[in-house]
Design brief:
Elements: E1 4-10, H1 15-27, E2 33-40, E3 53-57, H2 62-71, E4 75-80, H3 87-93, H4 106-111, H5 115-125, E5 133-136, H6 142-145, E6 152-156, E7 166-168, H7 171-191, E8 200-204, E9 208-217, E10 223-225, E11 229-233, E12 244-249, H8 255-272, E13 277-286, E14 291-297, H9 304-312, H10 316-324, E15 338-344, E16 350-356, H11 361-364, E17 368-373, E18 380-381, E19 392-398, H12 401-414, E20 416-421
Parallel strand pairs: 1-2, 1-4, 2-3
Antiparallel strand pairs: 5-8, 6-7, 6-8, 9-10, 9-11, 9-13, 11-12, 12-15, 13-14, 15-19, 16-18, 16-20, 17-19
Length: 433
């Protein structure tokens, strides 16, 4: 009789997980026959149930988790969780897993999803890689933040996607922005399904070039890095917001700079204590060549499944499954192509009138591999920091560097969100012009 094992998936199921399990079955038949079990608070999203997985409604409360774990018919080989917001559910599951399941600790997962705890860990383990910061509980503590060197950044500790992040150039802006952020926190945390208590940190703004790196972590110190990705953020375009406009790979950096980036990411991972997980680390290279950690998360980076597949032939989702099962990943590039991923956000708040150029993309870009159109003409749009989201996303590749540069030039010149300013959509006034 063939032995069976369970791949447990927390909260959200992606098709890439099913594909990865099928590849695991083919490449590791000695493990037995896999069975995918999804634990989710939203089981109706997956009805009717797929034949290749079992969906179990779960509120992630102790009694429910214990009952589910006791009822599983086979050994749990690994646990997969995709997306920052869902790690809060994974943390609750960890204490109920058998001790031989390869998984990050509940403590390390909490540190890796809370910017305040992250900064505390970095300050102890690798202070040279982290900026100065303070935690602010309420407006009575603003004077602590005013001791930092301006400009400074306000960051909610448990939110993602640039939500409520504010840059302040002086004390007056800081006070106005903090008052607004504290008012918004309860509603935004509820909307984003965050179960942790709201927290705010204020940290010094860092000037430099933005990059990210995804790493596969087995036991502490056993880390495999993927190629770096370069970012262009809204601030670099002169837009007073914090969304990421462009991601490109491969990067044009000296080997020594890449090594230092990898070492900085490894420091961040070691500081949090993460193991048996993929880790997405965002970094900034200062103008003196040193590296600082912006933040990390126990997850895959945005667009990385597609970007690494197209640019390097790396199966990122499969490697993620391997490390969650305690198996060695395969991060070595099989090829090198140029790849760019764009996210179109509104450059001001108001009413969306159009996204120019998207009907011409097919005739101008040679190799588009992914698009996601989420825009609605006539809908109100907001800055990312005020809760706005991407309107249009696209990834394209090229084998030729000159052709790639030409495609980038066309896209950036022609594809934009056209927004009619409307004062009723403006959600914050920080005192800026």
């Amino acid at each position: 009789m063939t032995q069976a094992y369970i791949i447990l998936v927390v909260e959200v199921m992606k098709s890439s997980v099913v594909d990865s399990v099928q590849r695991l079955r083919a490449e590791h038949p000695e493990l037995g026959e896999p069975h995918i079990v999804l634990l989710t608070t939203q089981p109706n999203k997956y009805s009717p149930h797929r034949q290749d997985l079992e969906v179990i409604a779960c509120d992630f409360e102790p009694d429910t988790l214990q009952r589910i774990m006791d009822s599983l018919p086979a050994k749990v080989a690994g646990v997969v969780c995709r997306g920052d917001v869902y790690v809060q559910f994974l943390r609750k599951l960890v204490p109920y897993l058998p001790p031989d399941v390869p998984i990050a600790s509940e403590r390390s997962l909490r540190i890796a999803t809370n910017k305040r705890l992250m900064r505390e860990a970095f300050a102890k383990y690798c202070p040279e890689n982290t900026p100065q910061y303070v935690r602010i509980h309420n407006m009575d503590e603003v004077s602590q933040a005013e001791k930092l060197t301006f400009p400074i950044i306000i960051k909610p500790a448990n939110l993602a996607s640039s939500l409520l992040i504010q840059k302040c150039d002086d004390a007056a802006q800081l006070r106005r922005a903090l008052e607004w952020v504290f008012k918004q926190l309860p509603d935004i945390y509820r909307r984003e399904r965050r179960t942790d208590s709201p927290e705010v940190i204020v940290e010094e703004f860092m000037h430099g070039d933005l990059y990210s790196i995804d790493s596969y972590v087995l036991q502490p110190g056993e880390v495999y890095h993927t190629p770096l990705v370069y970012y262009v953020a809204a601030q670099q375009l002169g837009i007073d917001d914090f969304f990421l406009y462009k991601r490109t790979t491969p990067v044009d950096l000296p080997k020594e700079a890449v090594y230092l980036a990898q070492r900085t990411a490894a420091n961040a991972i070691a500081a949090t204590g993460l193991q048996y997980t993929s880790v997405h680390t965002e970094l900034i290279r200062l103008y003196d060549g040193s590296w600082k950690i912006i933040e990390l998360g126990p997850r895959l980076g945005r667009f990385r499944n597609v970007m690494y597949r197209e640019a390097f032939g790396i199966d990122h989702g499969y490697n993620d499954l391997l490390v969650h099962c305690g198996l060695t990943p395969k991060p070595t590039p099989e090829r090198t192509r140029y790849c760019a991923a764009y996210s179109i956000y509104p450059e001001q708040q108001g009413v969306l009138r159009a996204i120019t150029g998207i009907e011409e993309i097919e005739s101008h870009l040679r190799n588009v591999v992914y698009t996601l159109d989420m825009h609605t003409v006539g809908a109100p749009v907001h800055y990312a920091r005020n809760g706005g989201h991407s309107l249009y996303e696209l990834i394209f590749t090229s084998q030729d560097k000159r052709e790639f540069a030409s495609d980038i030039a066309w896209f950036e010149a022609n594809v934009h969100a056209v927004v009619e300013a409307d004062p009723t959509t403006i959600a914050i006034d920080t005192g800026k012009d």
